[in-house]
Amino acid sequence: MTATTVDLVDYADATRRYDPVIGIEVHVELGTLTKMFCPAEVSFGAEPNTQVTPVSLGLPGALPVVNGKAVEYAIRIGLALNCQIAETCRFARKNYFYPDVPKNFQTSQYDEPIAYDGWIDVELEDGTVFRVEIERAHMEEDAGKNTHVGGATGRIHGAEYSLVDYNRAGIPLVEIVTRPITGAGDRAPEVARAYVQTLRDIFRALDVSEARMERGNVRADVNLSLRPTPESPLGTRTETKNVNSFRSVERAVRYEISRQAAVLDAGGTIVQETRHWHEDTGITTSGRVKSDAEDYRYFPEPDLVPIAPPREWIEEIRAGLPELPVARRRRLQGEWGYADAEMRDVVNAGAIDLIEATVAAGTSPAGARKWWMGELARRAKQDEVTLEELSVTPAQIAELQGLVDSGRINDKLARQVLEGVLAGEGDPEQVVTARGLEVVSDDGALLAAIDEALAAQPDVVEKVRGGNLGPVGAIIGAVMKATRGQADAGRVRELILERIG
């Protein structure tokens, strides 16, 4: 029986009867100006095959030179992941042929990585902290990019022809490999997602990569195996390649658990193979039999000398590390006074930087959260964009809340002002002026509107005079309508009671 002919086992049933073990290999493209071993420029979206040199094309006689900034970034990553930094390490040739690897080998690190024996704590959505042990973080170069043209899936099967772009070939990568992640049980998909998201946040905090998964700056290979009990030996693993979103990481793990359980239940054998993730259907399909290390015929790269980073340099890098995301979140939560659930919502919405900048611009934490997690979150969902992609800045939100705090506009008017800002009509002050949205604060104008409303509803006036204050709301509503919502409802109430009394 093969993996592609079985039905899926219910996920809850699969995790009751099998213990899932995951392992994740994350590749991050480093944000250097040039490639790992040559001075070719690195920039996203350039015309195909315009950012190449004889080295990145693998031409005979072209010799590589290590990018020092890439080494620094690799050390920064290793230190942030609580790794040991090697006193000396070296590059190796990983031999395999693909059209997007022009040299027919990848320059990587094998038995001597630059960083090893680390760990990070990842926080799940309910606040549970799960420790993931890091086996190694090593430097290597990226391959080029194949584009398969014709066919329905964008993959080589069924394509009419393929194009190869070598712009990406040679871009510096750091690959981070976990040790087997055990003990997650039915939360294995959630742990996998949180781990990759935590790494992405660390890369951004370290300023070593843009870490944009939609551009392929961060890619995850997700390994999964099942075993009967936590005490049993590890099962045969599959490796789902190049998963490039947090949601897909979670879905891929969940799918593979159900699929592998079905294979095992049917008496089948799990094949050690790479698998492709299909975002549209939410399934994995077989790729190729997974090679072991010996199949790549690693041997030391003869054209590059070993790297021996001085201890003084490493400590200088360590001293310059920024506050890491977990510590920053805890500090900000304490400063802002947010409850755990409120802070998790902010984190999940990707709003920490926006709220921090809004608070720095002079708004209270409560006021900043009100706008970013309320009206703006609704707008972002409606437009199917992120909060950062909305056409409004933290400074503008701070200005908007300042207008509310000063009494010049109320919350209802503020939403109209925000609409104007999002529509490109200018800053909040400009929108207020152009649209005439300022609160009516002239008692004379308010009294005129109140008298008109009282004259139109004499029965309400009599009820209020008789001690029944409930109907006052009807008068307030009429005044607010007459002033297009630009009156202060509290002041209107005071004037109504004075007028009737």
Observed structural traits:
16 helices, Arc Repressor Mutant, subunit A, 3-stranded antiparallel beta sheet, protein biosynthesis, 18% strand, 501 residues, elongated
How is the largest sheet built, in terms of strand order?
Answer: 2-5-6-9-1-10-11-12-13
Series of secondary-structure elements, N-terminal to C-terminal: HEHEEEEEEEEHEEHEEEHHHHHHHHHHHH
Question: How many beta-strand runs?
Answer: 14
Q: Mind telling me the C-alpha Rg?
A: 30 Å
* SS class: alpha+beta
Average pLDDT rating:
89
Are there runs of 5+ residues with pLDDT below 50, and where? Answer: 1-5
Q: Indicate the proportion of strand residues.
A: 15-25%
* Fraction of residues in helix: 25-40%
Query: Could you give a short account of the major beta sheet?
Result: 9 strands, mixed
**SS field, number of helical segments:** 16
Please report the distance between the alpha carbons of the first and last residues: 88 Å
Looking at the structure, what is the overall shape?
elongated
Protein architecture, described:
The protein has 501 residues and is of the alpha+beta class. Among the domains are: 25-180, no CATH class; 334-435, no CATH class; 443-500, Arc Repressor Mutant, subunit A. Helix content is 39%, strand content 18%. It has 16 helices and 14 strands. The strands form three sheets. A nine-stranded mixed beta sheet has the order 2-5-6-9-1-10-11-12-13. A three-stranded antiparallel beta sheet has the order 4-3-14, with no helix packed on it. A hairpin with a 4-residue loop joins strand 12 and strand 13. Helix 10 (394-405) packs antiparallel against helix 11, helix 13 packs across helix 15 and helix 15 packs across helix 16. The chain is elongated and about 95 Å long.
